[in-house]
Amino acid sequence: MTSHDQSYRAGEAKGRTEEKTNQMIGNIEDKAQAAKEKAQQAAQTAKDKTSQTAQAAKEKTQQTAQAAKDKTQQTTQATKEKAQDTTGRAKEKGSEMGQSTKETAQSGKDNSAGFLQQTGEKAKGMAQGATDAVKQTFGMTNDDQDKDHFPTNRH
Length: 155
Known about the structure:
This is Late embryogenesis abundant protein 2. The chain is mostly helical.
């Protein structure tokens, strides 16, 4: 029986060894699977984090670009309004100056006309006086006319 016992014990030892080996292989496979899953989770987490960071950067860039665009439009509009206002005021000032110049010219024209009329009347009066003086000097005057222009005490 010894050989049978030895054979039995050897079979038992072999069975236990196989069982332990299978357990160890199972444990190693479980640990390898867990490590694989953990690595996949870490990779997915890193991928998600990278994607989120990229999306946040994209949104921030879009917001910054939109803010710059809005600011540029506001500045452009303000500049346009300022230019229109300045142009309007310049036109208004030019119109006022033109009207003032027109009024000044009209006043000068009126003054010149009045001055020329007065000068003409004075020259006419002086010429008439000179004519009358010459006529009287040469005795060519009518006595009735002389009374009006050269009153004397001849009554």
